[in-house]
Write a structure and sequence with these properties.
CATH superfamily of chain B: MetI-like
Helix content of chain A: 25-40%
Distance between the termini of chain B: 40 Å
Structural class of chain A: alpha+beta
Radius of gyration of chain B: 23 Å
Largest interface: A-B, 32 and 23 residues
CATH topology of chain B: MetI-like fold
Strand content of chain B: under 5%
Shape of chain A: elongated
Low-confidence stretches of chain A: none
Oligomer: heterodimer
Helix content of chain B: over 70%
CATH class of chain B: Mainly Alpha
Number of strands of chain A: 18
Strand content of chain A: 25-35%
Order of helices and strands of chain A: EEEHEEEHHHEHEHEEHHEHEEEEEEE
Number of helices of chain A: 9
Order of helices and strands of chain B: HHHHHHHHHHH
Chain lengths: 329, 268
Amino acid sequence: MTSAVVFKGVSRHFGSVRAVDEVDISVAEGEFFAMLGPSGSGKTTCLRLIAGFEQPTAGEISIFGQPAQGVPPYKRHVNTVFQDYALFPHLNVLDNVAYGLMISGTSKGERHRAAEEALELVALPGYGSRKPSELSGGQRQRVALARALVNQPKVLLLDEPLGALDLKLREQMQEELKALQRKLGITFVFVTHDQGEALSMADRVAVFNEGKIVQVGKPEDIYYRPEVPFVADFVGSSNVIPPRITEKVTGTWTTAAVRPEAIMLGDKGLPAKVRATSFIGTSTRVSLDLDGSQMVALLPKGQTIPEIGEHTHVSWAEDDIHLMEMTDE
Amino acid sequence: MHSDRASKGLKIAAGLGLAFMHLPILLIFVYAFTTEDKSYQWPPPGLTLKWFGVTWNRPDVWEALSLSVKVASISTVIALFLGTLCAAAVSRTRFFGREAISLMVILPIALPGIVTGISLRSAFNLADIPFSFWTIVLGHATFCIVVVYNNAVARFRRTSGSLVEASMDLGANSFQTFRYVILPNISTALLAGGMLAFALSFDEVIVTTFTAGQQQTLPIWMLEELVRPRQRPVTNVVAMVVVLVTFLPILGAYYLTRGTDTVAGQGK
């Protein structure tokens, strides 16, 4: 399988800030690839490196086997859906979508027909004559998508495209984006800080922290088998278990992760004290203190909820604890 | 009780203020029709249209008018070009001394014209540049740039920077991006700035006095006419023309920039 985008030891420094620090990525053709991380973790800079708005300080980027070094954005077969959509306010929707084709010299009739088709693809047929200012946030997002897709890019870059939408619309757009990607077979590189979004849509997720990729893998791997505490905490809100507790349970001196919903309270296991409880709908969240370490358990409906201050015991099934690489804690 | 309506006293005061500003201009208009040509006598002894014909046939009026139009046009073109470039640099990029440059560009309009005039005259003298049409143009361009710059910089700030990136992303090179994205988004601001620049240049006296050679722009010609009491109402006819020529572009600029307060390129 061809690689759509390859990063080899790519760094991008802004002065003394290492925004992107020796990153290696290989995105396969036709893949839905998510770059997940908190703000300032370097994921957007990586996207801009692919688009050509930034040049790497070190390392090599290739797009479909072609080195991207020195190739300006307008010569890359890559299109971007911007975070603020960046629709041209002076053009109507049809001309916005047809912009790329107009630049490439496609005749007026031809490009308007293609733009209409692209608008149909994003479920906005007949909106061509409106101005971007007359559209809702969700509609602008679709126009931005159509404007990128009409150029038949080899790679589509999406920079937090759902960030400005409300929850319901966001969930709907997640499904639509996923369906669209399957239908078109175009490689999608998607940047987000929302772990739910990354896990639900992507074929593979790269988790960024402080300019480096800390783990790459399938959503299930990222969620259930975090390799480092950062991933456990950021992606799954897992409980990170310090080595001294892990050793008591497993006999191995290392950091481990246990998902909150995997924790059982009862008579056996490690002694713990209940610090707080809060009802969150389908389950109850119980904060626990284990000999100085904090832990969170999610108890499903129907279980006895302990009182605050009560002493209890914490346990989990053997395969619910996931050992991670040792860190300098 | 608080009321949104102004009190009668305030209305009268506002009316008087406006009258004080604008009645003298009407006076100028009236004197353009007077039959008496030695001194400005009130009320005018009679009304006539003959001064329009007289003005029309005076070659010195035409010379001054055409010089003023030429100077204003060329200064405006220079200001449009340099002002836009400067605004783009200041609003698009961050560099050392950016604020200082912004201040230095605006300074000529804040400085008294006489200071600008004297300094330019000394500089031209030092550099052995003979006073000519072009020295007037250069003098006017110094303050014309300011109005273009101010208009353009405000519009650039309201235009989202990602529009340029979006255009490049869609295959447009720098020239195409300027032509199809930047220019349409700043055109009304440039038009407004250009019209104001034209109006400023057209009635400028002080800087012109110092930078002109033997040439007379229209305002300078009027000043000289007032000293020589010869066919006085001709000056009034010309004054009327100047008011109209400067008033129309300002009105146009006002209408063009009105209603563009919404942020261009705003995403959400």
